[in-house]
Structures are given as structure tokens and as C-alpha cells.
Amino acid sequence: MKKIVFLMLATLFILTGCTGEAQSDDENIVKIGALHPLSGALANEGQEMRDAARLAVEEINEAGGIESLGGAKVELIEADHEGAPEKGMSEIQRLDREKVVGVIGAYSSGVTLPATQEAERAGIPFVVDIATVEEVTKRGFKYTFRVQPPASTMAANFLDYFNVLNEMSDSPLETVVLVHEDSVFGTSIASLIEKGAADHEIEVLDNIPHAATTADLSSTINKINRLKPDAVIATTYLRDGTLLVNGLKQSNFQPKAIIGVANGAFSNTAFINDETEINQYIMDVNYSINPQSNLAIEVSKKYEDQFNKHMGPNAAYSYTATKVLIDAVERAGSTDRAKIQKALSETNLTEHILPQDSIIFDESGQNANAQAVLNQIINGETKVIYPDEYKNADAVLPAK
Questions:
Q1: Which of 68-72, 212-216, 336-340 has the lowest mean pLDDT?
Q2: Distance of CA 242 to the CA centre of its chain
Q3: pTM score, two decimals?
Q4: Per DSSP, what are the bridge partners of residue 72?
């Protein structure tokens, strides 16, 4: 009798614990996790991204679910990391217990780094929608895949586009001041730009960090006023980016251009829509939807109709990351996380809404074709002004 009980327990352990299969209580449900800041200082961005993931899941389910799993429906398990790294880790542990087959997230680089480490430990595929810091895909992890361009690409794109701007203008930009929030996100991008500036004939007059939570940027504004650069180059979140622009507009000095790099404000729909007059002609080297894609236009309209807000770049990447993860589940034909990881590594997604070629991942898990575009706010809308194959407006220079 003891032998029979032992064999039954062993069989149960094999079926539930050793296969890596994230089995839902309902076999017709496939659970995926979405980890974003749904409360706290970054809640506006996090909720925008969550809504995009909801739309992607809704589209899949309305189209019949996951065909290779007999039409199984996808369920989105939402998690709030509140902008705190330790909460991000604990939410990954909860999503593991919820038996998700994979996770998308997490917007903040400071949260994404420990969250992907926890996912790697648990063997959970993690598709990063937004997190710029280079180290996300530089740790030899097998279960981390990033759709967004990393800091090095964002900085390189900025340096190239800066030269393009000068070719467009009769009033060249030669001197800059770098302004950035002081976490690994802003610091890494500013450092890369400063390192490559000389090769692009850009003189960096100063590199000024600040806390993203600051309520006062007057000292930064005063420094910019004294230095009088041709352009202010900013990497911020929404709150501090808005403070910076308002401070510059109210000061005695107006640069020829304000250009964001991976800026959390300048491509944010709340910033673009709420302060049209103040924000007119501000530029941003950032991710975006492809305005020349009929699919992107269709998805953007769905998002606006359903959530009563424009689909910004953060939402575009969360939508895409969700589709990438679901595509891998479809091709894996399984809820086994290891099989989904393998399918992710073999991704070649040609139908998507981003301004790039196919989404494919290199050996590190980085989207090899990811790139930023040069956006500019024109009459209350963000427009792509470069590269030419994606542009839907001409640049306005100098950007007064």
C-alpha cells in the first residue's frame, strides 16, 4: 500500500512540478503576466501600457484564441510594481504561483533588472517592453527578451540624427547641455552621448543630473541660462521633463532646440496633449509606432476608441511585446515555459506596428532591428520627421 501511495505522489510531482509547464486550473486558459507601475509616480505610464496589453489580448481572443492549443483563451494577469524594485521581484514570484507562461514589462529599468533576474531564476520567459538600460540583455540570461532599443542604440541614433538636423538647418547646433534624471536610466544614456559627442562635432558644455522626483529644477535652469547652449538634450520622466520645459520657457534664455532622448515626457501623450503651446516643436529621439503602417494606424484607432486616449510609444511597445509573447506560445503549441523560451529565441515577426524591420532576437535576447526615430511635436501631435521611410511631417527648425 505504501508503495502505491509513493508511486501516486511521484507521478503527481512529475506531472505538476518537473515539466516546466504552467498549467492553469482551466486547460482552455493561457495566463500571461503584465508587470507595470499601476500606482505611484509612474502610474500614468503604467496604466497606458497595461491598457495596450489588454487590447492585444482582446484581439487574440476575439480572433479565436491560440489555435495550436485548441483555441485556448489568453488571460492577462496584471501586476503593480509601484516603481519599487523589491515589489517587482515579489510580483514575479506571485505571477509564478499564478502559473503564467510568460511576463511582459516593466517600464522602469531599476525594476526590470531585478524582475528579470527573478524570472530567470524561476524559468519564466520575460519580454521587456520598455527598459532602456544596457545590462537588461547583457547578463547571459536565456529567458529575457527585449523589444525596445537599448541605451546604446538610443544614444547612437541621437548622435546620427543630430547630424541630420544640422544638415536640414541653416542655423547649426554645435553646443549642448545634457540634463537627465539620475537613475541608471538617465545616467546611462547621458554618459553614452557624452562619450560619443566629440566624434559628431558636438561640444558638451555640461552634464547635469537631477532626481526624477524633484519639485524644483531652478538650479538646472540657472546653469543652462549661464551656459547658453544651442540645444538642451534631456532624458527624463514625465514629471521632471514637464518641470524642465516649463522652467526653460519661463526663463530669459531660449535654446534653438530642446531634444529628448528616450524621454518619458516628450513622447508621452499627456505631455503632448495638455500643453500644446508650451511644447510646440520639441523633439524626441524615441520609440514610436510606424505612421506609414496601416496596421499601426488601425491599432492606434482601436486603442483611442476603447480607452479614450492616444496610443503613445510606451503603449505601442507593450502591445507589441504582448503580441510577441502570444506568437511564441502559438508557435510552441504548449504552455511549457522552456518551449516558449525556445520559440521566443526563434521569433521572426513581420506583421507589427513598430518603425523597424522584422522583430528578431539576437543571442542576448535583444531585438536586433530595434531603433528609435526622431519625433517632433507639431500642433499638438507627435510626428516622425526622420528616418525618411517612416516620416509623416517635415522638421521645423530652429524649433522656437
A1: 212-216
A2: 19
A3: 0.88
A4: 66
